[in-house]
Design brief:
The chain is built from seven helices and 32 strands. It is α+β, with helices and mostly antiparallel strands. It folds into two domains: 290 residues, no CATH class; 178 residues, no CATH class. Strands 3, 4, 5, 6, 7, 10, 11, 14, 15, 22, 23 and 24 form a twelve-stranded mixed beta sheet that branches. Helix 5 crosses helix 6. The longest helix has 36 residues. It starts with a strand and ends with a strand.
């Protein structure tokens, strides 16, 4: 006699599949400071999701693991971590009534980030959006009309989102069945057969580990452990036979899982009382104190330089003729006496950096009239008549103007025709940063900015191929000429 039994036994199983969470994000309570530093008091992972069918949720993120027995809206604590972002704020006083503020955003992440900034009132820009490339920075220049030695730049707000990856493993019930049957063999014994079926009724593939066994007269019989990959809406089946005069009970335990990597966003947050406003970070403000008299002196020097540059333009046109006259002189020309050299000595201007411990002046333009003082101020390679230029490709006309030693900042492309005694000057990291700031703030060529930095550091004549760079050089008191 043959009988067929259908027994469905639900024991213990897990099926981990890819579901779409409502929203997952991390927020950090951050305050940025204008010197480039920041403080982060909290970091939290917020999960906004509810599904009555989901259970046993595992989350791995930032070297932390969390287990949720069922889905729910929850906020989890994370170790505080700083953003790879810094903000610096500086200012300059353009005239008695005008200030400029330079708002620099530095992105140290390996991908571009869009920033939205809300500035304090009173400036020409109220809100701005700027995309900062990976491993780079952007400078936003603001201005304000104010006749005061003190400028207060108040707190600003900044919003952005940083992408991140999070791993989720979670489970839902999937169906399975066990079909048991028997038959009597020719020797009179009974053979029992069990057909196990595990069905994947989800729309993603699953990894499954299954264990099969039976219990006969209180004795366990193992059928083994198996691993499968079950595609969506497919099933796997396994059958086993045993011969026994006792009725066996067949068991199944399986474990199915899927690891899903979700892209989430990291957002800044502002603390208000005991809660946080998510999506906005605070940037602390600061005050600038720049007395006007420094700028009055600069304006006087600027006007004087403009007058001198008018005379210099005439001198440049005559340099070719003077050079030919000098070459025509014979070797019998007498060396001028000291008195004659003193008569020929012309006042020249060189940048002079005054140390803070001696005087609270950042930089001034000093008029030097003696050769001995000049020798102390200028490094040895620049003590001779020198020309600092912002390019390495010269025309014949350019070479006729450059009658002395020519210094070119690194990074300039060199042409086939070069002046005699050309020297490539390597900038320090600090000088490169200053040159890049000039390039960004004043929108001038980078090589022109490098030449201006060398002119400020060493003095000498600075020849520039860009009109805007020439204006900047003249404004800061350099002996500049336009190619």
């Amino acid at each position: 006699m043959r009988s067929v039994y259908l027994i469905i036994i639900i024991i213990l199983f897990f099926a981990f599949i890819s579901l779409s969470f409502g929203e997952i994000y991390e927020y950090r309570g951050v305050v940025f400071y204008p010197n480039g530093s920041q403080t982060v008091d909290v970091s939290k992972l917020h999960i906004d999701y509810e599904n009555p069918d989901a259970f046993s949720i595992y989350i791995s993120y930032r070297n932390s693991s969390f287990y949720l027995p069922y889905s729910k809206n929850i906020t989890l604590n994370l170790p505080p971590k700083k953003f790879n972002i810094s903000i610096t704020i500086s200012a300059s006083r353009i005239s008695r009534d005008e200030w400029r503020v330079y708002y620099k955003i530095i992105n140290n992440y390996p991908y571009s980030i869009l920033f939205n900034i809300s500035f304090p009132g009173g400036f020409n820009i109220k809100n701005a959006s700027v995309l900062v490339p990976a491993k780079s920075y952007k400078i936003i220049t603001l201005s304000k009309i104010q006749n005061s030695n003190i400028l207060y730049f108040g707190d600003s707000n900044i919003s952005f989102e940083v992408p991140a990856k999070l791993m989720i493993r979670y489970s839902l019930p999937i169906p399975f069945s066990i079909i048991k049957s028997n038959k009597i063999l020719s020797n009179g014994s009974i053979e029992w057969t069990a057909i196990y079926i595990i069905k994947n009724d989800k729309n993603v593939s699953l990894n499954v580990n299954a264990s099969y066994w039976a219990v006969v007269n209180n004795t366990k019989i193992d059928f083994g452990n198996y691993s499968y990959i079950i595609e969506p809406n497919e099933n796997v089946s396994q059958s086993f036979n045993i011969t026994s005069d006792y009725v066996p009970i067949f068991y199944l335990k399986f474990y199915a899982w899927r690891d899903v990597y979700e892209t989430i966003k990291i957002k800044p947050a502002i603390k208000v009382d005991n809660s946080y406003i998510i999506g906005i970070g605070k940037v602390e403000g600061l005050s600038f104190n720049i007395p006007y008299y420094n700028y009055m002196e600069r304006e006087i020097k600027k006007k004087k330089e403009e007058k001198e540059n008018e005379e210099s333009s005439k001198t440049i046109n005559q340099m070719q003729r003077h050079k030919k006259e000098e070459k025509s002189q014979t070797q019998e020309t007498k060396k001028p006496s000291k008195n004659e050299m003193n008569k020929q000595e012309k006042e020249r201007k060189y940048p002079l950096i005054i140390e803070e411990k001696f005087k609270k002046v950042a930089a001034a333009i000093a008029t030097v009239t003696t050769t001995s003082i000049t020798a102390m101020l200028i490094p040895p390679i620049f003590r001779r008549r020198s020309y600092i230029v912002d390019k390495g490709i010269f025309s014949i006309k350019d070479l006729e103007l450059l009658s002395g030693t020519v210094y070119v900042p690194e990074g300039c492309k060199l042409g086939n025709i070069l002046p005699g005694g050309i020297t490539i000057i390597k900038l320090t990291d600090v000088e490169k940063d200053l040159a890049r700031d000039l390039h960004e703030i004043y929108d001038i060529p980078l090589n022109s900015a490098k030449a201006i930095i060398l002119g400020v550091k060493y003095g000498g004549r600075v020849f520039l191929s860009d009109k805007k760079a020439y204006d900047v050089a003249v404004e800061i008191g350099l002996e500049a000429y336009l190619f």
